[in-house]
Amino acid sequence: MENSLMFDLSMMMAKIVVILIGTLGVVPVMVWFERRGAAWMQRRVGPNRVGPFGLLQPLADVVKFIFKETFIPKEANKFYYLMAPIIALIAPLCAVAVIPFGSKAIINGQEVVLQVAQMDTGVIFILAFAGLEVYPVILAGWASRNKYSVLGALRGSSQIVSYEISMGIALLSMLVVYGSFNPHEMVSWQQGSLGFLPRWGAFVNPIGALIFWISIFAETNRLPFDLAEGESEIVAGYHLEYGGMKFAAFFMAEYVAMIMASGLLATLFFGGYGLLPGMEHLVSMVANHFGFGDVGLQNTKAAFEFISFATKIAFFMFLFVWIRWTLPRFRFDQLMDLGWKILFPISLINLVVVTIGVYYFNS
Question: Residue 296's domain spans which residues?
Fold first, then answer.
């Protein structure tokens, strides 16, 4: 009993370490790629001074943030001012813990589910922590006691709340299809094919996938929905009065939220950790080449599932960067019109159509 408890504890710690390294470790890579990718798209050079191809530029930025002067505005509410960046970083990290990055691995004869927090209501848990992202925006703007910060907080909170409704309805349309809140069961449902296409949620419910994808741009305050940080209008928005590591926490939180949103999008609509087309044959070839038994075959499959899931997340992260340097920032009235007058009614109609379709095919 004690050995089993120690094994479960060690496996839990190992999975937490993998999640932390995988999310926080991606942040400097994305910072470099965002700057370098922007340079490629705009036919510029980009960062190329620190390290080969500028690869060590994020490390130089971290050192700069660490040694920057720490300050708190005189009129600020100190407690909430310091709490805002902490909440901003912790909330998406907690949500990532429920997203499965593989089916299972077999270690020392015991099955290890490749998911930090296993729960049947996993999607509800993710949405609960994703919904907390509005609080650091409001707290940072209000606690800073700066008019530009308050304006950015008002913009950000109204934007997040508005697009959360359309995103939630798009998610609900897929819950009707899957009949479950469990991410593993959602991934299992998407195995197989629809003719020559994978049986992914995006092909079953393309309108829901499109609405969800657009909404996560607004939820993560990314261009063309970065009205909360409109430099040309409100200087820097809700984190105007933040500097040093406090600003770095907001910076990291944005990228962690992007990873979380990409992982949720992949799980709901693109097969999650399900193997990409053609990977099944690759798994069989590797297992046969090394003469693996059932245990080795399952562990090989788990490794390729992790690679498949990471590839999907990397693709959506690339889209975040691509869209940022392709589309201009919306005006605030355009932002709200898109959310309430277009996405909201379309998501409602789509929910009704999907519900009728599911009832028809299941009857």
Answer: 2-362
Interatomic CA distance for residues 290 and 302, integer angstroms: 16
What pTM, to 2 d.p., does this model score?
Answer: 0.90
Distance separating alpha carbons of residues 287 and 291, to the nearest angstrom: 6
pLDDT by residue (tens digit) across 298-323? 888 888 899 999 999 999 999 998 88
At position 24, the amino acid (one-letter code) is L
Q: Where are the beta strands (DSSP E) in 225-267?
A: none
Are the C-beta atoms of residues 61 and 30 closer than 8 Å to each other? no
CA distance 190 to 173: 15
Domain count, the chain: 1
What does the alpha-carbon distance between residue 235 and residue 5 come to, in Å, rounded to a whole number?
53
Nearest to 243 by CA among 70, 50, 104, 44: 70
Helix (H, G, I), strand (E, B) or coil at 39: helix
d(CA 80, CA 241) in angstroms, rounded, equals 13
Phi, psi (rounded to 5 degrees) for 16: -65, -40
Q: What is the pLDDT of residues 234-288, one digit of tens each?
A: 677 788 888 888 888 888 888 898 999 999 999 999 988 888 888 888 888 888 8
The per-residue DSSP string of 284-350 comes to: HHHHHHHT--HHHHHHHHHHHHHHHHHHHHHHHHHHHHHHHTTSPPPPHHHHHHIIIIIIHHHHHHH
Q: List all residues 6 or more positions away from 267 whose beta carbon is below 8 Å from its beta carbon.
A: 99, 100, 183, 186, 187, 273
